[in-house]
Amino acid sequence: MSDLDGIVALQEANQPERGGTLSACLPPARIAGMMSEMPLIVARRDGRVAGYLMTSTREMNADVPVINAMLAAYPGTADAYVYGPICVEAEARGKGLAQAMFSELRRLVPAREGILFIRRDNPASLRAHEKMGIRQVAGFVFAGSEFVVLSCPG
Ligand SMILES: CC(C)(COP(=O)(O)OP(=O)(O)OC[C@H]1O[C@@H](n2cnc3c(N)ncnc32)[C@H](O)[C@@H]1OP(=O)(O)O)[C@@H](O)C(=O)NCCC(=O)NCCS
C-alpha cells in the first residue's frame, strides 16, 4: 500500500492525453482492491516507483467491458487471472524491467494461466511480451480499436 501513490503517479504520466499508451486509468481504490487479491509487482529506482505490473481475478473484472470483450475472444482456463496493466517509466524503458517484473510474477503465481490484451498499435508492448515468451491467441475490436489477446501459460 505504501507504493500506491507512486503507482497512481506513473499511471497518470502514461495516459493518452499526456502522450502515453495506457488503455486504462484505474481509480486508487480499485488498485488497492486488486493488491489485496493478487500480486502487484513494483520496480523502484532511487526510491520511487519506476514500473508496475498489476494482476487481478476474472471476478474483479466482471464489470469491465474491455476485459469482457477479451475473455469473449479467448476464455482461457477456469482459474486464469487477468494480467496487466503493465507500465515502466519512459526513462527506464528497454532495460529489461518489464521482463524482470514478469519473472517475479511467474515466481509468485507459477501454475496459473495469465491473459492480457495489447492494442495492435503498441509495438513496444507487443515486442516486450513476445520476448517474455507470451503468445498471441486471439484478437478483438473494442470501441473502434484493435487488440491482440495474449496468454502466459500456467
Ligand atoms: C511496454 C513496456 C511496459 C515495456 O517495458 P520495458 O521495461 O521497456 O520492456 P523490456 O525492457 O523488458 O523489453 C524491452 C523490449 O521491448 C521492445 N521495445 C521497447 N521499446 C520499443 C519500441 N518503442 N518499439 C518496439 N519495440 C520496443 C524491445 O524489442 C525490447 O527488446 P530488445 O531488448 O530485444 O530490444 C513499456 O514500454 C511501457 O511502459 N510502455 C508504456 C505503457 C504501455 O504501453 N504499457 C503496456 C500496455 S499493454
Automatic annotation (TrEMBL):
GO terms for molecular function: acyltransferase activity, transferring groups other than amino-acyl groups. It holds the Pfam family Acetyltransf_1. Residues 1-154 form the N-acetyltransferase domain. This is N-acetyltransferase domain-containing protein. It comes from mine drainage metagenome.
